[in-house]
Amino acid sequence: MAKLMKALLPSAFLISIILLGACANDDEVTNDTTNNNTADDIEDTETGENPANVVGESFDFKGIDIEIDVADQEDAIIVHYEEKKDATDVQYKNTLTNEDVQGSDAMTLLEPIFEKLSIAESHTNEEVVRQLAEGFGVADKYTELKAEITFFNEHKQAYEGKK
Description:
Largest sheet: 6 strands, antiparallel
Order of helices and strands: HEEEEHHEE
Radius of gyration: 31 Å
Number of helices: 3
Structural class: alpha+beta
Helix content: 25-40%
Mean pLDDT: 79
Strand order of the largest sheet: 4-3-2-1-5-6
């Protein structure tokens, strides 16, 4: 009988510990320390919205609208780029190259141009117009170039150049 008791005692002890552990009332509160707030996650639901899946300071500006006229065509190039909290709206029309796209397709064409630009609020009208004309390959062709740029401090600045 003592031998049976020695064999059952460790098993009974183990079962008791498991039951007590399972029934414990632990009031410990755990906090999410990963700072993984999904409330601000980007939702890409529409064509033309958030084409790069990135919203942020990708370029020197938050938004830009450009209209470029050439000698034989008004509005030969039209660009609309706007970073919003949850999306980026991009449209690009260039009749000189027969392009009329939006969303990811527009961003694919505009990104290399935007990356070469170095635009700051402190730049003169002439500097910005020159950079835009060169960026879009119309430095020697444009007759009028209009742009409105929104910087990250929400300041909007209009630029205009005529030849």
